[in-house]
Specification:
The complex is a heterotetramer, with 2 copies of chain A (about 350 residues) and 2 copies of chain B (about 325 residues). Chain A is about 45% helix and about 10% strand. Chain A is built from 12 helices and 7 strands. The radius of gyration of chain A is 20 Å and the shape is globular. The chains are: A alpha/beta (about 350), B alpha/beta (about 325). The complex binds thiamine diphosphate (2 copies) and magnesium ion (2 copies).
Chain lengths: ~350, ~325, ~350, ~325
């Protein structure tokens, strides 16, 4: 049975052109994202930072799809759960922790925005705001410019399923379809918008079915299946580079934490549902796969996690030690300063 | 008499109105089982059911737009905007639609909706650029809208009940820092606080300081501080920003002959600009000094980092300093 | 051939339960709407009124669908081209002309709004504004109240295809689907949004395909085929009353005039395209049908059109003779006056 | 020298910038083959092609939101909002996004977009409640946005070119009544008018009247009228509403010691409120009279019927009357 499984699994990642090194690096990013994320919650509970919102449960979808793009050349227009995506795109654990601690040298906003409002100019990660869905319009605008200028860039953006209810989402989908833009439109569907279940959010089970109404394909993938997400990403990138237009990728993911440190999900989520989520943890699922595939053994596992522990601790200590923004800078950058 | 927090008063006002009038419904994001992110509708879902306590999709234009339609067909909607900052996607439905239904139909149709929005920032809020805005000036400029922002627990309950019963759209602004900060004894018997009149919170003779919402707290403390120095400040709570109680404003200025306005919103074209303009226009003869403003900085909302947030906000120090300057003028 | 045609046609309206009286009344409304509309353009060209925007070419879709509702009990949430729909719903030629002349007793707005911003409290026609698509949210709100209060009312709203690009359209479609509301969501697709062709407006040929993405049916009908529109309306009303939820009806119509009296369509529409529109004039098509069906003969035709001419002239003379709004009332009704 | 209308100047400014810099694109509703509903992009489609002269879907949030993205990736978008009244659906993208890109990224990203919007009403406009609004106060309150509204043909061209080249978002407001009303000789050689400085259109000594856009026309005529009566009015064209040239404003008031503001927007919290507040705060010592405002009524925009539209607008008569009142004070 295990043997059989293994053969099947091996066939899968090999068929996708991924070698052992790729798989281990992908696993590293999943585990790193999770470790940073968990540390953030610990720091918040310890009262060291006021607030945390993060992406536990979404890492598989993000690492899988992001693995398909050119991390140097392409764009990411993220949302607040895009922690893992930002890591793959080049942000470091220190970068992320600087945002959590709202330090002066936080590359996202210099401490001006809440944590998880990602941005990094050098890594082509566009600045994130709080009002949901606005980023979808920015992403298709970036893609329009890429197409007009012939840069060959592909743009990845993402959003939660609840936020697809915003008008901006529709307007962006429509624009992407009209101009066949090189953009990958991700929806990370974790079944809840804070407390609102999909039943009250939309009249259909899958957001993806809406893509057809805009003239491009929409596909549904299991967000706990990293390779399936990677495969979907590859096809979407192929379409984008071949000027075949956008692709909507709806990843069914699980929200393993409360919405944010301000939320108590026990009030609206049955325990059984919360447990069901844990059973679909992409980190666990991917780890099983790698073990069955004989890619991840005890030694490698220990090595990777030791490295991650060190990086997370370094990032935390480093960020905490950095200065807070100087109050005298509060009025800077309202307009261009030359 | 029951001792309530501001948040309890908000909740109780809605609760009583929903009990009293089955046409009243609440709609918004997370107002259902969760009872709202601040708990203002806690328990409503269980008592009034899903149809009257409606978790809407995540779309503010929908929240206001459907409320307009519900009101046109016999319901009395209370729309909750989770954070005032997120009313912006609904701007068109509020300004072009809700505020104009009556005027554009020459009185044939009305729009009896209440839009509740927690607003405001401060170091304690940790809201950053999008969970701390003051939106009162933007909407008080809009004819056809009423804008209310209570400071006391008593007013929170009485004004919200008036807003719900008002035949026109009311934007009801609740400063987040007031929700749990203060407790007050409030009568058990039903009472209403009328939309319109301002309230003198501290009588004084040297100068008048106008404020509303959370800033009254800072202003009253500043007034106490300078009182020791013989500066007797009259503090006026504007409460209803539109329609504005100019009579009380001008009356107070004619009495003290000096005026200042304190507000947390960006200074430029913030609400204090209109108050200052009215005074400069209609009470100039009574003025013995410039009309001063203490306000938030002209940067996009309140930055997240404590150091920056503190630099943004009008503080008791800054307010007291301005009181001294004005008194000395 | 003609005989054969006739048989087929007869079968059609009979199968729909429409007798001669119904057909003649429907024809009367089509022709009346057209006559009022044409008169409005004449008045504008003559300099008697500053502006006109109207619905020539849309009448078949509007009369057909509106014929299926209960005109007393149900709601209409119109847009600026809903002239014919407003007539069917109970507004009189005088009511419409009062709006064109912006007279004090204009029931829509007392002269406060531009012409074609329909409203009539007594006839359950909700007030129209200029910003497109907002009415879709009002309509689903009215429908939600109807369902909650158990009034059994059905709501009809309509919009142009270009306006479906607005976020409000998506938000309303989503809400209608989630709550299975008793609402008929019409789209009058005349292929242009002022000058913008559908090619630049959407990535798909039919808006109707989007309905499925919201969980309810969307159908496409030929707007020049009044009976087909009626049939679609009947099924939509049936669904609504049976609590089966909303229906999107996309009527392919033709814009027989410029967008408005401010527009010169020759600049962006080839003559051939403008002529193609004329060939799909619902009034002509329906007249042919009635003639073939032996319902409309010379005598009846003359009688109906004589009646219409008289009504239009009466409405024009009446409205023109009414007083303009009193300037002293300009500040009234900002708030309720008790 | 070429004699141009205001509309020609707007068109020429964009044309020159598109010729000069291939990164410049225009997008909006009907800007393509039709050349815009007012003709501001007439001929652009044929010359620059569909990709750079983009007819967008009918969605203003899309127009501004995609422009932000285009600007982030190397383009310089000029977004046309067909009528200023229809910018409201884009309010969130303008206020929460465009105006904050730079601040929220601590200077890492910028948003070099220009948003053009024809605004304003009047009997001749026949725009009714939704084709006649003044939106300057609403947006001038927003930190991070620049707001410009030229009066002269010369300024229309020079300021628009500056706006297009500006590294930050500029809301460029064009009063519809100016488009075809005036003709002026404008230099053939390239020139820019800087965003910021106000301009004294008529020097005077009795009092200062501040105005902008179409209202300068009425104000200057009123000034001529009362001049015969010995009232010498200084008329200042504010031109750039944000950032505001307070130096020129205060300098003029210190000179004349009396001030009034004329604006077409609703009076309450309209732009004149901030001008009055600044004067009452920083030039009180120089003031010899109240700061008066002549403005549009506080009703939702300009009604359609001529009789009502006329009742809404500030007129030369009302302005002259106010000048007399202030002079006599
Ligand atoms: C315009 C706007 N309205 C409300 C909010 C408050 N809010 C933040 S996240 C959230 C829920 C988002 O749910 P979803 O899109 O499913 O993403 P998820 O958090 O589940 O990943 C809400 C209502 C917001 N940020 N922006
Ligand atoms: C929000 C908004 N933006 C722009 C306009 C200007 N405008 C009026 S009608 C129209 C075109 C509408 O096209 P469509 O929806 O197809 O309806 P049609 O006129 O073709 O029947 C436009 C752009 C408006 N009224 N509202
Ligand atoms: Mg979700
Ligand atoms: Mg159309």
């Amino acid at each position: 049975m295990a043997v059989h499984k293994t053969r099947v699994h091996l066939a899968r990642h090999e068929a996708l052109g991924l070698d052992t090194g790729d798989l281990l690096e992908m696993y590293y990013y999943l585990a790193l994202a999770r470790a940073i994320d968990e540390r953030m919650w610990v720091l918040q509970r310890a009262g060291l930072v006021p607030f945390v919102i993060s992406g536990q449960g979404h890492e598989g979808a993000q690492v899988g799809v992001m693995w398909a793009i050119d991390r140097e050349r392409d764009w990411l227009v993220p949302f607040y759960r895009s922690l893992a995506a930002c890591l793959v795109k080049g942000m470091t654990p220190r970068d992320l922790m600087l945002g959590l601690f709202s330090r002066a040298n936080d590359p996202s906003s210099g401490g001006r925005q809440m944590p998880a409002h990602w941005a990094h100019n050098a890594h082509k990660i566009f600045t994130t705001s709080s009002p949901v869905a606005t980023q979808y319009l920015h992403a298709v605008g970036v893609a329009y410019a890429a197409k007009l200028r012939g840069t060959g860039e592909v743009v990845v953006t993402s959003i939660g399923e609840g936020s697809t209810s915003q008008g901006d989402w529709h307007e962006a989908m429509n624009f992407a379809g009209i101009h066949r833009l090189p953009v990958i439109l991700m929806v990370e569907n974790n079944r809840y918008a804070i407390s609102v279940p999909t039943r009250l959010q939309m009249g259909v089970p899958d957001v993806a079915v809406r893509a057809e109404g805009y003239g491009f394909p929409g596909i549904v993938v299991d967000g706990s299946d990293v390779l399936a997400c990677y495969e979907a990403g590859c096809e979407a990138v192929r379409r984008a580079r071949a000027d075949e237009g956008p692709t909507l990728i709806e990843c069914k993911v699980e929200r393993l934490t409360a919405h944010s440190s301000e939320d108590r999900q026990e009030k609206y989520r049955p325990t059984s549902d919360i447990e069901a989520s844990r059973s679909k943890d992409p980190l666990v699922v991917f780890k099983h796969y790698l073990e069955h595939a004989g890619v991840l053994d005890e030694a490698r596992y220990t090595e990777i996690h030791a490295r991650i522990r060190a990086e997370v601790t370094d990032a935390t200590d480093y960020a905490e030690a950095q200065p807070m923004p100087d109050p005298s800078t509060v009025a800077r950058h309202v307009f261009f300063e030359g | 008499m029951a001792e309530l927090r501001y948040l309890d008063a908000i909740r109780l006002a809605m609760y009583e109105e929903m009990r009293r009038d089955e046409r009243v419904v609440v709609l918004g994001e997370d107002v259902g089982i969760k009872g709202g992110v601040f708990g203002a509708t806690d328990g409503f879902y269980a008592e009034f059911g899903e149809a009257r306590v409606l978790d809407t999709p995540l779309a503010e234009s929908l929240i206001v737009g459907t409320a307009i339609g519900m009101a046109a067909n016999g319901l009395v909607p209370i729309a909750e905007i989770q954070f005032a900052d997120f009313i912006h996607p609904a701007f068109n439905q509020v300004v072009s639609e809700a505020a104009r239904i009556r005027y554009r139909s020459n009185g044939a149709f009305g729009c009896p909706i209440t839009i509740r929005a927690p607003y405001g920032g401060g170091v304690e809020v940790h809201g950053g650029l999008y969970h701390s805005q003051s939106i009162e000036a933007t909407f008080a400029h809009v004819p056809g809208l009423k804008v209310v922002t209570p400071y006391t627990v008593y007013d929170a309950k009485g004004l919200l009940k008036s807003a719900i019963r008002d035949p026109d759209p009311v934007l009801f602004l609740e400063h987040k820092r007031l929700y749990r900060a203060i407790r007050e004894d409030v009568p058990d018997d039903e009472y209403l606080v009328p939309i319109g009149p301002a309230a003198v919170r501290r009588p004084g003779s040297t100068l008048t300081a106008f404020a509303y919402g959370q800033m009254l707290h800072e202003t009253l403390r500043a007034a106490e501080r300078v009182a020791a120095e013989g500066i007797d400040v009259e503090v006026v709570d504007l409460r209803t920003l539109k329609p504005l109680d100019t009579e009380t404003i001008l009356g107070s200025v004619r009495k003290t002959s000096k005026a200042m306005i304190v507000y947390e919103d960006n200074r430029f074209l913030g609400f204090g600009a209109e108050v200052a303009a009215i005074i400069a226009e209609e009470a100039f003869d009574a003025l013995d000094g410039p009309v001063l403003r203490v306000a938030g900085l002209d940067v996009p909302a309140v930055p997240y980092a404590d150091t920056l947030a503190a630099a943004f906000m009008p503080t008791v120090d800054r307010i007291a300093e301005t009181m001294r300057r004005l008194a000395a003028y």
